[in-house]
Amino acid sequence: MRQRSGLVTSLVLLCVLALMMTVAVAQPKRGGTLRVAYGNKIAHLDFHTAPGYEMMWVAMNIGCGLVNITPDGEFVGDAAESWDLSDDGLTWRFKLKDEVKFHDGSAADANAVKFSIDRLMDPETKSGMRNFYDAVKSVEVVDPLTVQVNMKQPYAFFLHMLAGYRTGLVLYSPDATAKYSLNDRKKGTPEAVVGCGPFKLVEWVPNDHLIMDRFDGYHVKGQPYLDRVHIRVIKDPVTQMAAFKAGEIDFIASFTPEHVDTLEKQTPEAQIFTGKETTPMIAMMKITVPADGKKMSENRKPHPIFGDIKVRKAVGCYGMNREEIVQIAFKGKATPWAGMNPPGTLDTVDVNDKCPYDPDKAKALLKEAGYDAGHPLKFEIITDNEKAVFNIIATVIKDQMVRLGAEVNIKLVDKVTWMNTALKDAEWDMQVEDLLSLLTLDSNAYLSAVGSSWNQSRHTDMKINEYYAEYAREMDATKRAAIAKEFQEYAVDKLYWNAVSGSPFYQVAQSWMKGYVFNKEFEVHYDTVWLDK
Amino acid sequence: MREYIIKRVLQMIPTVLVITLVVFMMMQAIPGDPIITLLGDAYDEEDAAKLRKEYGLDRPVVVQYFVWLGKLVQGDWGASILTSREILQDVLMRLPVTIELVILAMLVALVIAVPAGIIAAVRQNTWGDYTAMSTAMIGISIPDFFLGVLLLLVFSISLNGFLPSSGWVYWPGTCPSVICEASVGGNLKHALMPAIALGVGRAAILTRLLRASMLEIIRLEYVTTARAKGLNENGIILKHALKNALIPTVTIMGLQIGFLIGGAIVVETLFAIPGLGTYGINAIVARDYQQVQGFILLVAICFVVINFLVDLVYSFLDPRIRYS
Q1: Would you call A203 an interface residue with chain B, using a CB distance cutoff of 8 Å?
Q2: pTM score, two decimals?
Q3: ipTM of this model?
């Protein structure tokens, strides 16, 4: 009897100890400074207009929005406590949490939501987010904690857009915006750069560092755990690796894929985050050129080379060995992909079978188009030096084209020159680049619809616009997926948007950095991060 | 001497202005403009047109330059098109970092070059000479960037952070921002690798030059006379010969400042140092015309002033050289 009671006591003690240990291990530690490395500069701090992922990742931590999106694609409330949509899909109503405050103490209420969306939609703001709000008719304040968004037509991706198209919606304080000028905000005056996020801006020195401290009035009690986030701009990947290995940096927000293997060998205990690609790597061909010689003219004629679908198919479909490109450029760490929607994006469809590598078929198509040994196909690939991999891909494509009897020249320029060429309808044949990370196929509309500044191929096929519109308005997920499939098959058949692969994305963290939730490029949040050291 | 100084100072002004004009024209000739960078992935042609008008970028290039010049004579260096920050404030914040780097690099160069050049000359055609010259050849051949990466790999990675890989620590009392680290030891640790990367190449050039100069000087009659008088050999070399041999070296040192500032761009980028170099290269890449003008103006001023000071140093080294 005594033996049995002793055993029971021991078991109970063991359970209590195990429970205590579990609790101890799971409990985030408060305090410390997270040292982050960015590979690129932060453009400026007007979140509604500044470009670049680096700015977005700051905006998500200083600012807050209505909703966020989890890696599983679920929506969770940020400043919004709940939301609903009318049966006709034309009215969204958001109920806000009443404890959400801006860093200046003012309330992030319905008025602030209306102010922020109106600001984004105002052409005078010149926000890159403006086009995403095309479906919004108006915003109304119902009461201080309830805001209503009236739509022109049903928009299936309204929540996706609010959560993760570029910065998502970032709420601005009407008081701070009135008190400080746009320039104050852009140059990073802390009192002007006011958000309702877990961190508040302390200091920004362009091209050097940005510091943000915990906001004690954050509406999620107990968060953030960190005292401070110190972001440094370290452009060179070798320097990033050195800083990481030496323990000078806790987190690299975007790490070059070609150095991942080296970093893994040097720092085996590092946490390496990646996932299915959501950014397309493209070898885009120009479809039309101005018929009247005036750039950006609406009067178009087919590009002398790639205006012919036979040549596009020969080069971009059957003549391009995507497997080989991925093996050489990414050491196999990317997905060969022909579709316009990247492998990790919502409603993506694998259409690789529509473009199998078949050099004989490619040569036959080129012959039909009038190219042969006596009259070889000649074209130029333009790419930029933002990422070393672009030039590698261009070189591999050049080599593959030689096998078809084509002659290719590569023009390597800097990023701004590339943008100037691509966006201003300059002369080019093919370009290699990766573009924005796409949360949904819908978010690609501003990159490829007719009439969009970013429709670099300058195709004039209104069917693309029709597909986008139909897809965005379809509120039934199953029907939407069917539209997406048909759309992607159509797009690969026309090759207006010639994808080569996904563009892989990596983040690297020290072993003591805990609580970070990887959500590809879309969401980089430090509110749940804590340091186990 | 006073007249000479005034004359040189007055000559500096048109020199600097011509430099800014040439650079301004060159920047305008490069494809792209700051509006493309300003809008970035949010680029919209309609917005871009409005912004170009707002910033006066739709005006003729010459008009834009004279608008900038007009503001400059009133002390207004303008604001960055991208960040809206005042140019003068930003360049002055970064200038001390680059100056320190350049001075340290030059010191590294002199610490290597002077003894090596003397040994090579005094021990001509011996192992000492061959070693010094071979080392000089290697030093000239290795690009700053490559040497910087090698130093990083050895001292930061292989030796587990023996020297910091990146960033900057300021001298106590010189912090330009609200939050920064400041300590003498920290500053020197952060500056060491970049200074070596920058300075080694310069040391190689100065070694070769000093050797040639010394070889010429030690064969002159006054040196032979000094030996005949029984003066100590070290004293002859260091006190009598070196001073004259340094004259051409000092000239080259002045010109090397320009190369050091250029090299600082690469080294500062590699080591993520918040100096004028990174400021300048980022401005050029982003096509921020205002920033580029501010950067070039300051660099041009530094360059002409340093070369002026070099000329003044001549009269100290050689009393026969007098300016009137």
Answers
A1: yes
A2: 0.91
A3: 0.89
